[in-house]
Amino acid sequence: MAMATATRSVTGGDTGRRTSRAGRAVAIVAIVTALVIVGHRLVPDVRGFGSLVDTAAPWLGLAVPVLALGALLTRSKFAAIAIVLPLLAWLVAFGSAWLPSGGGTPELRVANQNVDADNANPAATIRNVVATHADVIGLEEVTASSAPVIATTLSDTYPYHGQESTVQLWSRYPISDFSGVDLGLSWTRALRAEIATPNGAVTVYVVHLASARAGQTATRDSTMDALVDRIRTDSSPRIVMLGDLNTASTDRVLAPLARLLRDTQAAAGRGLGFTWPSSFPLVRPDHIMTRGMTATQSSVVDTSGSDHRAITAGLRF
Questions:
Q1: Which one, 1, 42, 162, 306, has least CB within 10 Å?
Q2: pLDDT value at residue 1
């Protein structure tokens, strides 16, 4: 009987030590998660790894309920306290995106849509964009087959337009000083134009930067550098940049551009405004950014056919 009692005591002790170790592990993971959330841009960007971490950072908040379950199962007070850290870190880093912002009557409405080169019904996609009542529309991935359909859908409402390779600009107001913008790719897929609106002239860029994939961001980064250089030397008092930058809002690569232009989603949107993939958006590679104008509204529109959702913004002079 004494031996059996001793065996139960030893077994209980081993279980307690395992539970204690598991609790410490949960706490360590919680602390590391909190550090990555607030310091994701400090992770070395080796072969694009840092950029990938930046992009995934908003989703690290999903670790909190998992860690909470771990703390509950291990009955660890240390773990229970530690999981507060990633929750607070996420709220500090991303929680403000849901606070009320923007407001006022827009004087210019703009929209952007990556049409998707493989879109089987571009007309339907474009009709959804027209329904936003935008005054100016930027389009990317316009192909030789989709261009005539898009022109038929837009030309009555938007009599002024310009195209450079696979990017297009459509406007209710006259376009002048139109030119392509060389970003260092083998073909030009960015443009710049002046638009004469009833409230004054606006310089509009429509941009499609190079694609970025895990471990393959060098070309995207070089096109971003070229865009930043172009915007930095543009003396226009009012700039609106529309485009698919293939760069998440949280990506450190966007920071130099964000110091020159204000992102409308950050200024007047609600939430993080994810746009891709359209079926279940996980990231926001599409952006509307401005200088010399104030954003009153920013939203995401679920358009059919494309793998990107459209984005819109209301602006005041």
A1: 1
A2: 46
What φ, ψ does residue 51 adopt, rounded to 5°? -60, -40
Report the percentage of the chain scoring pLDDT > 90. 90
Average pLDDT over residues 183-207: 97
Q: What is the pLDDT of residue 157?
A: 97
d(CA 315, CA 179): 24
Directed axis angle between helix 63-74 and helix 2-39, to 10°? 160
Q: Helix/strand/coil (H, E, C) string of the chain? A: CHHHHHHHHHHHHHHHHHHHHHHHHHHHHHHHHHHHHHHHHHCCCCCCHHHHHHHHHHHHHHHHHHHHHHHHHHCCHHHHHHCHHHHHHHHHHHHHHHCCCCCCCCCEEEEEEECCCCCCCHHHHHHHHHCCCCCEEEEECCCCCHHHHHHHHHCCCCCEEEEECCEEEEECCCEEEEEECCCCCCCCCEEEEEEEECCEEEEEEEEECCCCECCECHHHHHHHHHHHHHHHCCCCCCEEEEEECCCCCCCHHHHHHHCCCEEHHHHHCCCCCCCECCCCCCECCEEEEEECCEEEEEEEECCCCCCCCEEEEEEEC
The pLDDT tens digits of the residues spanning 265-292 come to 999 999 999 999 999 999 999 999 999 9
Rounded Cα–Cα distance for residues 220 and 209 (Å): 6
CA angle 250, 254, 260 (to 5 degrees): 125
β-strand pairing of 190-197 with 136-140: unpaired
Cα-based distances in Å from 219 to 6, 25, 223, 224: 67, 39, 6, 9
